[in-house]
Amino acid sequence: MQANDPPRRLGFGVFEVDLRERQLTKRGLRIRLQEQPFQVLAMLLERPGEVVTRDELRSRSLTSRRSRRGSSKLNPQTVCS
Question: Where do the domains of the chain lie, and which CATH numbers do they carry?
Answer without folding.
Answer: 9-80 (1.10.10.10)
